Amino acid sequence: MLPLEGITVVSLEQAVAAPFAARQLADLGARVIKVERKEGDFARGYDQTVNGMSSHFVWLNRSKESLALDLKSEEGKSALDKILSRADVFLHNLAPGAVDRLGFSSKELRKKYPQLIICGISGYGTDGPYMNKKAYDLLIQCEAGLVSITGTEEEPSKSGISVADIAAGMYAYTGILTSIISRYQTNEGTVLEVSMLEALCEWMGYPMYFSGYGGKDPERTGARHATIYPYGPFAANDDHLVFLAIQNEREWKLFTDKVLGQPELSEDDRFHNNSKRVKNKDELQWILEEYFKNLSSDQLIDRLEESKIANARLNTVHDIMSHPQLNARNRWSEVESPAGKLRALIPPVTFENMNPVMNPIPEIGEHSEKILQEFNCKMDALI
């Protein structure tokens, strides 16, 4: 039996945060009814790169049932209410106040359905001066300070993925799981909220403490570490970048002895601890770059591996589709979609006796009639 088999999740969702949380619940066997408007979740239209489908939508929406409702109509609201009366979880991430205006406030739902777990995801939370401020991933990255420490000395940069959305989705997912466990003990539902700002600020813990108690923000150092050296990219003589990381003095000595063949560097007063290496990183960088000019990227990685020094190749995003480690561990599966079969990574938590659900990606409203009939709703609710 799947861990969440028998749990019904109704998700009034769009974009990334709530769909990511809901998809992970579906991975564990929950039934997820995705409520969409007539034109569908707007993430369906972000791009057309996956055989005509959006890459975001393909990633976030397998194993769900799509129900298209007009929630501005009384018939649509009545249908959603009937479905919620038999649901376990109500998840939503519409604009601030939108769910309340539709008549589905947490306060009212808790009165009617005391066993219902209600999870709202917002940009800034349900009170405070930023409550009604529009929140997109890039903007939250800015407000949380992430952009200020990402990029080069000359130019700040956002993260290459939607980290604020993903952080909020992960906390919603774990919060809902916690609430399901709690309900078994109390027989009561609950209301939980996750704000993108608070989720991402939690992930900013290290730079926050570094700055708050050190009096100085971490420097923007591109792909290099702001407070550890050497830790980052170095060019080999074939122009490929190799990333390496020295975490402690034992590794620094191994690196100077076995990789560089220059044991005297480990005792050099300029470099014999991390603080001094960071202070004198320009001098050390020149020494390392001069030495690495004599090695190909494969030779450098071989030496680092032999010396047990952490390292990585700089893969492109396309490279991960054929990454040898993912292939060796059979981490790829397939899911059906309106565009045919698509490759999909198996969820990263591996269970001994359970396979995750990898069911199809739905069309807009694909399951509307079936769901409305099941819950004895009027067909007038259909868009």
Structural notes for this entry:
By secondary structure, the chain is an alpha/beta fold. The chain has two domains: 8-203 and 327-381, Crotonobetainyl-coa:carnitine coa-transferase, domain 1 (Rossmann fold); 231-235 and 241-313, formyl-coa transferase, domain 3. It is 36% helix and 14% strand. The chain contains 15 helices and eleven strands. The chain has helices at residues 17-27, 55-60, 74-84, 98-101, 106-112, 137-143, 163-186, 196-203, 205-214, 249-259, 274-279, 281-292, 297-306, 324-328, 368-374, and strands spanning 8-12, 31-36, 64-68, 89-92, 117-122, 190-195, 231-235, 241-245, 310-313, 332-335, 342-345. The strands form three sheets. A six-stranded parallel β-sheet has the order 3-2-1-4-5-6, sandwiched between helices. It has a three-stranded antiparallel β-sheet with strand order 7-8-9, with helices on one face. Strands 10-11 form a two-stranded antiparallel ribbon. Helix 1 packs across helix 7 (163-186) and helix 7 (163-186) packs across helix 8 (196-203). The protein is elongated, with a radius of gyration of 25 Å. The mean pLDDT is 94.
Short description:
The protein has 383 residues and is of the alpha/beta class. The protein has helices at residues 17-27, 55-60, 74-84, 98-101, 106-112, 137-143, 163-186, 196-203, 205-214, 249-259, 274-279, 281-292, 297-306, 324-328, 368-374; strands spanning 8-12, 31-36, 64-68, 89-92, 117-122, 190-195, 231-235, 241-245, 310-313, 332-335, 342-345.
Q: What is the average per-residue confidence, as pLDDT, rounded to a whole number?
A: 94
Class by SSE composition? alpha/beta
CATH topology of the largest domain: Rossmann fold
Evaluate the radius of gyration. 25 Å
What count of domains describes the coordinates? 2
Number of helices: 15
Dominant shape:
elongated
CATH architecture of the largest domain: 3-Layer(aba) Sandwich
- Euclidean distance between termini CA atoms: 35 Å
Task: Give the CATH H-level superfamily of the largest domain.
Answer: Crotonobetainyl-coa:carnitine coa-transferase, domain 1
Top CATH class of the largest domain: Alpha Beta
Q: What's the order of the H and E elements?
A: EHEHEHEHHEHHEHHEEHHHHEHEEH
Query: How helix-rich are the residues, as a percent range?
Result: 25-40%
pLDDT < 50 stretches: none
